[in-house]
Automatic annotation (TrEMBL):
Region (Disordered): 219-254, 332-356
Transmembrane segments: 369-397
The UniProt record lists the keyword Lyase: no
Start and end residues of each Inositol polyphosphate-related phosphatase domain: 1-339
SMART domains, alphabetized: IPPc
Protein name per Swiss-Prot or TrEMBL: Endonuclease/exonuclease/phosphatase
Keyword entries, A-Z: Endonuclease, Hydrolase, Membrane, Nuclease, Transmembrane, Transmembrane helix
Species: Phyllosticta capitalensis
Length: 403
């Protein structure tokens, strides 16, 4: 099975499907097992069986917190991209079936599959957790757990968005812990009453799962914001590899690499070598914005021992609608899961599941609705129109009553 993962922070803007479609499969495996990220057109991309998209900042907070049809204008453009991307490589526009879209606040995960791959899906579970203020979903994670037949595979995909800003390393690590504790998948109800549902609940870590985490993890290359003159030392696109201005030199300060090595975050996860340029913060005029250090905020990692043969891990060209460049990975899976040490995090998770995860999510969801309604009334033209109509109505009633 060939899988294609893509993560992108949409910056709360509408996506142009035609622009995104052109380079959508840039990281796809090719007919000679090389990355299609090369400018050469001699290699034909091998279009994947399954596509998983991790999307952050999918819409303005009013629409994202209310959810439902409020998100249709934003997510429908992603759906429209897939037929265009397939056609761009000579495939039929109906090559992919839209399997699911799951959102939590401003984060979404979308799964597409060929009909043959979709028919192998025996079950799907979804889960979500907010790690923003009051556990709301302005930051957080949403996950999908799929069981496949022929052969049997258990796949878990997590779309995540962690705390921003250079100095918030500890907060990002705490966000990961909250996700590991509170992102809980539940087996479907078998009709039997039971007071103990622990055996029906599963976190990110599982002895039998191949787990992938993709998202705007927000780890930076410096621990403090840049000074007014630091932008003069930012990477240059034409700098040779041995130059201090080449982007590879900035990886030495990558917080995610440092924190993983210290065992403080993404325990047991691995990442392919990062060879692409920083994906944040892209200036609208090209290059890097001066008030943020160029960083690899957008990453894709997989649990060690997932049997993944990675073909490519790279970024896509930045689009005008976002200050992040998309990042994509193509891989194929070994049908047999390699044996792992009993002490490995997949067998001994670093954090236990929170017994109150459900109550926390329900309370956070109620808060999201309140915040979403207030933001909709105050920050959208539709909400403003409702407020004006109510005020005019009350004024008319008041005038008639006291005339």
């Amino acid at each position: 099975m060939n899988i294609y993962l893509l993560t992108w922070n949409l910056a709360r803007n509408l996506v142009d499907p035609r622009q995104l479609a052109v380079d959508f499969f840039r990281a796809a495996a090719t007919n000679n097992n090389s990355s299609s990220s090369s400018s050469s057109s001699s290699s034909t991309p091998v279009l994947p069986d399954v596509i998983v998209l991790s999307l952050q900042e999918i819409a303005p907070i009013a629409y994202a917190f209310l959810g439902g049809h409020q998100l249709d204008p934003y997510l429908s453009r992603i759906v429209e991209t897939l037929p265009l991307a397939a056609q761009h490589h000579g495939a039929a526009p109906d090559l992919y079936r839209h399997v699911l879209t799951e959102t939590l606040g401003l984060t979404a995960i979308m799964v597409f599959a060929t009909p043959a791959a979709a028919d192998r899906i025996a079950s799907i579970q979804t889960a979500g957790v907010g790690v923003g203020l009051w556990d709301m979903g302005n930051k957080g994670a949403v996950g999908v757990r799929m069981a496949l037949r022929r052969p049997e595979l258990e796949l878990t995909f997590v779309a995540a968005h962690l705390a921003p800003m250079e100095a918030a390393v500890a907060r990002r690590n705490a966000d990961w812990e909250a996700i590991a504790r509170n992102l809980v998948f539940e087996d479907s109800d078998d009709g039997e009453d039971s007071d103990d549902d622990d055996d029906k609940q599963h976190g990110i870590y599982s002895p039998t799962a191949r787990v992938f985490v993709a998202g705007d993890l927000n780890y930076r290359t410096r621990d403090a914001p840049p000074s007014p003159t630091d932008h003069h030392t930012f990477p240059q696109a034409d700098a040779p590899p041995d130059s201090p201005r080449h982007h590879s030199q900035w990886l030495k300060g990558d917080q995610l690499t440092r924190e993983r090595a210290a065992g403080r975050v993404l325990h047991g996860f691995d990442e392919e070598p990062v060879t692409f340029a920083p994906t944040y913060k892209i200036s609208s005029r090209g290059g890097w914005a001066k008030h943020r250090f160029p960083s690899w905020c957008d990453r894709i990692l997989f649990l060690e021992g997932s049997g993944a043969d990675v073909h490519a891990y790279t970024s896509l060209p930045a689009l005008p609608s976002s200050d992040h460049a998309p990042v994509a990975m193509s891989l194929s899976l070994n049908p047999k899961l390699p044996q792992s040490d009993p002490s490995h995090p997949r067998n001994r998770p670093p954090f236990p599941l929170n017994p109150d995860w459900r109550q926390r999510r329900e309370a956070a969801r109620r808060t999201e609705v309140v915040v979403g309604v207030l933001a909709w009334l105050g920050l959208t033209w539709e909400g403003n129109a409702v407020v004006v109509a109510v005020v005019v109505g009350w004024a008319a009633v008041y005038g008639v009553w006291y005339r």
